[in-house]
Amino acid sequence: MTRLQRWLNHDGYYWGKINGRYDEQTRFAVWALQKRARLQVKGEVGRAEWRALDRRLRVRPLVPGGPPDRVEISLGRQLLTLYRDNRPVLVSHISTGAGVRYCKDGRCGMAITPVGDFRVASRAPGWTTGRLGSMYNSLYFVGGIAMHGSTKVPLHPASHGCVRLPLSTSERLFQLVQVGEPVYVRSKG
User: Fold this and answer.
1) What are 127's strand-pairing partners?
2) pLDDT tens string 97-121
3) Predicted structure pTM score
4) Cα separation of 139 and 181, whole Å?
């Protein structure tokens, strides 16, 4: 298990402690690998996952010719990729807007993660609590929509519109992404 965590860390999937346990953060990293390799997302590690790690998967960018440093979010694959010098350095399983109507404290809306070209507008370190819940290391890129760490990052879209990431991954993303960073959200990919 330690070997798996090291490989996942080397390829930008895993940002938890290398502890030799198949914990929640390791499972999230395996999901990201499976999504990127277009394998069945099941969380188990078999020959296909080891082959994918061994091959050092080439990533087809969502935004060919985009700036060398950027964040790309695929709503279809529920996958976030951070690029540095046109090279993916962080790949994460995510959970985005559930696509349903919601009402909270007398205010209603649609749980949609907007598609488009954005920039990180502001950052909020640590835990913050808003009208719709708690967020960790928030990187706001359009209005009240942010990429942020969460204790709940299921395999399906489940947020009010934000891009939820595993907690340890959100710590690394927050270290690397600054205000002004381009963020590209696409429906497919």
Assistant:
1) 136
2) 999 999 988 999 999 999 999 999 9
3) 0.92
4) 10
